[in-house]
Amino acid sequence: MDNERIKDKISEIEEYLSELESIKPNSFEEYKNDIKEKAACERYFEKIIEAAIDLGYMVIRSSPYPVPKDDGDLFNTLRENNIIGSTLCIKLKEAKGMRNFISHQYGRIDDELVFESIMNEMPEDIKAFIRACKTKANI
Fold first, then answer.
1. Disulfide engineering: 68 pairs with which of 8, 35, 73, 134, CB 3.0-4.6 Å?
2. Structural domains counted in the chain
3. Model's pTM, two decimal places?
4. Domain assignment of residue 34, given as a range
5. In this structure, what CATH number is given to the domain that contains residue 90?
């Protein structure tokens, strides 16, 4: 495994998580009413999920497992090869879907859903993903 590249990607994700933590609003009202804060949180959400996708590919490429055809299969491949569990797989796929929705602005963004994810779900799910990748890479 190219552990140095994996370590670098993990450090990048941890830095993004820390930066997001430092700018997170105290309430949904604050998030909803501060356009700059909202935009910054959404951008960090995108960067974190993009980096997690990169990390997933790095782990797969450094193993004997087949490389998925696209991002849609990435987390399934990680689950099928016992790198992550089913629950985390579902959560990461949902986060990836939300990231795509935010990035490509497919429609009106549900601010409350994004806020809840940023405040509660996504950071913990990404930390669990990092732990799983570290275990697989023996880091």
1. 73
2. 1
3. 0.92
4. 3-137
5. 1.20.120.580
